[in-house]
Amino acid sequence: MRSKLSGDISLDIENLSGFMVNKIGVAVSGGGDSLALLYLVNKWAKNHSAVVCVVTVDHGLRVEAKDEALKVKETCSQLGVSHDILNWTAWNRKGNLQSVSRNARYSLISEWALSNNVDVVALGHTQDDIIETFLMRLSRGSGVDGLSQMSARFTRGEVEYIRPILKLSRDSLRQYLRSLSVNWIEDPSNSDERFHRVRVRKSIDLLSNLGIKKESILTVSRNMWEARQALEVYSLKAVKQCIKFSQADIIFIRSLFTTYPREIQRRIVLRALEYMADSEYPPRASEVENLICSIEDNVAHTLGGFHFYSVSDNIRMSREFKLTEKKVSAVNEIWDNRWRVTGRNDPGLEIRALGNIGLKAFTTWKDVKIPRLALISSPAVWNDNKVVAALLLDGNGLWKLKPIKSKKDFIYFIQGH
């Protein structure tokens, strides 16, 4: 359903989200893009009997931020929509500020959306953001994925996000706000050349003088997105053929994996690491290349918290013990986001990694044909410093062990990526 709005700007919320939206969240900073989005969504919601709720994240990095959040609250009050301010206070002054704050913002908004039963959250990314992101990633030597257009719809932290104004320019949105006599806030960081994005933004006119127009960048970015979709389809077919799961570990069928083009191999490895580690950040391209070379040569390798090693001429991907040795859960809970252990929940019992110490108690462990690297990072029932049960070796019939990770879910993960 499409609503015609002032200045011929229109939104297509339900087709974009893919389902009926009854309650829509809008992330609003008070800047021109997000403020225009708020007015557009609010008009759409009135025409579709939907509820609008707004959220603003105060990162606490500028003294003006609190007043800006309060101005957004005032605007929401005038529009008759609810508004919440979320405060971020966890920055330790380390890492890339824009990257860290962006991740914190998503985390806070996702928690807010889930607690408020929001169907979908709208973000104010625009056509200009596509162009700037493309140039930033081009400068870093990104491949197809990095240069492809950002998605109009995605999931993060179990929350659906949409970008309804992705095809609109900042100029058109500001013209829309002027037509409503609405003022917006200009964030001074948008002109701070210490940030890479700002420097890129200021260079766009220079590129235009060289014949590299915005329209051309948008076209290339869209073409990259289409190429990415084709590669994902091919990668999914490859995964179905050359991947299997065993005791919550991934097995690469090496004789098949090595027959695929390098780009497909790279995608399979990256998706495997992302799925198994629940990580948002991929390893560096050079690290992935080294891993693929090791798989081809049938040589052991470690990357992203996982061992990759040869088993019967295949490559097994097992979690490093050092990442599991401090993981503790009660019986009947999920352990290490990989296993669910069910059984009697006596006082003092807890689930921890078996480890080398626990493995020593099982002198016949080699008979089960499970590699040591997989066993030491597998769950065991402990009572203080005593192993009650090594669940991949001996459950005594009192315990049930169910892997959370599976090939079926891995395929679903790739399809929804």
**What is the 3D form?**
globular
Name the CATH architecture of the largest domain: 3-Layer(aba) Sandwich
Total number of beta strands: 19
Q: Which range best describes the helical content: under 10%, 10-25%, 25-40%, 40-55%, 55-70% or over 70%?
A: 40-55%
What name goes with the CATH superfamily of the largest domain?
HUPs
Could you say what the CATH topology of the largest domain is called? Rossmann fold
Domains (count): 3
What is the number of helices?
A: 15
The gyration radius over C-alpha positions equals: 25 Å
Provide the structure class: alpha+beta
The major sheet is characterized as:
6 strands, mixed
**How large a portion of the residues is in β-strands, by DSSP E?**
15-25%
Gap from first CA to last CA: 26 Å
Q: Which stretches of 5+ consecutive residues score pLDDT under 50?
A: 1-6
Can you identify the CATH class of the largest domain?
A: Alpha Beta
Mean of pLDDT: 88
**Strand order in the largest sheet:** 5-4-3-6-8-7
List the SSEs and their pairings:
Elements: E1 3-4, E2 10-11, H1 13-17, E3 23-27, H2 32-48, E4 51-58, H3 65-79, E5 82-87, H4 97-115, E6 120-122, H5 127-139, H6 144-147, E7 153-156, E8 159-162, H7 170-179, H8 196-209, H9 214-242, E9 243-246, E10 249-252, H10 254-257, H11 262-277, H12 285-297, E11 301-303, E12 306-311, E13 314-319, E14 334-335, E15 339-343, E16 349-353, H13 355-359, H14 372-376, E17 379-383, E18 386-390, E19 399-403, H15 407-415
Parallel strand pairs: 3-4, 3-6, 4-5, 6-8
Antiparallel strand pairs: 1-2, 7-8, 9-10, 10-13, 11-12, 12-13, 14-15, 15-19, 16-17, 17-18
